[in-house]
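Reading a protein record of the kind used here takes little practice once its layout is understood. The reader may check this reading against the record printed directly beneath this paragraph.
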Amino acid sequence: MAHIASPPAQRAPQLISLGSAAERFDVSVQTLRRRIADGTITGYRVGRLVRVDIAELTEKLLIAIPSVHRTA
């Protein structure tokens, strides 16, 4: 009998408010709303509130700047 691999388990999002996320990443709430609107990040509606996943913000908003090594 062939073994069928199950799909990887998805982690539950760790949702925080837009205000908390804006403070944590030093951006405005409006910037987060724009990123949700343009599809860069996912917004989750919980009742009337909008929340974002902290792991997704870390992945998509923090972009490493490559270092430039200059030789003399």
